[in-house]
């Protein structure tokens, strides 16, 4: 997102009433809704788009990831009845936020999209615990595996803080925060911040 520009969003959902509701909430909070689709048809125009909010059903996750490959557009997934496998796949794909339809409020939608725009993650605590054991087995997390600084950064990531917010809270430089995040991802064998937060939460490291 360019400085001074309101964040832009594309909304995808099978149901027009859901799309219109999400669009209204985001527009009232200063977002620019660039378009709507159902089942990613018509295909979203990603030129200059900050966030694609899409319904992660069927093959939509793979299509959404393919669409944004090579672009700075970030993903927010909505799910109707999340399963362990679905949440695992969403997190592994690098999606920045997972929003179950059940219990979704205007406030949660706006806060989650804002967090993703800022480079943070937004994963509800009850969904974090759904990640499968294979993620844990694939990691290098063990007793003493994360130091105090790394755990502090992860806790703030889990709370939705972006790099700048973490730097201000911990009185680090933004470069230091980025380096710590890189080290955490390496230690946890995680590809994304969302996956690192989910794994660390599951293991009780944060």
Automatic annotation (TrEMBL):
CDD domains documented for this protein: LuxR_C_like
Q: Which GO terms describe its molecular function?
A: DNA binding
Q: Which Pfam families match?
A: GerE
Q: Name one GO biological process term.
A: regulation of DNA-templated transcription
Domain HTH luxR-type intervals: 139-204
Keyword annotations? DNA-binding, Transcription, Transcription regulation
PANTHER family from the entry?
Answer: TRANSCRIPTIONAL REGULATORY PROTEIN NARL-RELATED (PTHR43214:SF24), TWO-COMPONENT RESPONSE REGULATOR (PTHR43214)
Q: What is this protein called?
A: HTH luxR-type domain-containing protein
Organism the protein comes from: Virgisporangium ochraceum
């Amino acid at each position: 997102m360019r400085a001074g520009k309101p964040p832009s969003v594309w909304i995808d959902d099978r149901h027009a009433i859901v799309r219109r509701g999400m669009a209204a909430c985001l527009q009232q909070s200063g977002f620019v809704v660039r378009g709507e689709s159902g089942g990613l048809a018509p295909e979203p125009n990603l030129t200059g788009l900050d966030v694609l909010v899409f319904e992660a059903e069927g093959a939509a996750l793979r299509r959404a990831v393919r669409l944004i490959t090579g672009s700075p557009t970030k993903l927010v997934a909505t799910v109707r009845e999340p399963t362990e496998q679905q949440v695992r796949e969403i997190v592994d794909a690098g999606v920045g936020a997972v929003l179950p339809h059940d219990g979704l409020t205007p406030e949660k939608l706006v806060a989650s999209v804002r967090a993703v725009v800022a480079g943070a993650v937004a994963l509800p605590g009850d969904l974090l615990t759904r990640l499968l054991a294979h993620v844990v087995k694939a990691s290098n997390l063990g007793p003493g595996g994360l130091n105090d600084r790394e755990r502090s950064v992860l806790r703030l990531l889990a709370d939705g803080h972006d790099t700048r917010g973490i730097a201000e809270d911990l009185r680090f430089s933004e470069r230091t925060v980025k380096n710590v995040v890189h080290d955490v991802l390496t230690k946890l064998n995680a590809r994304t911040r969302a996956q690192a937060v989910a794994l660390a939460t599951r293991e009780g490291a944060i």
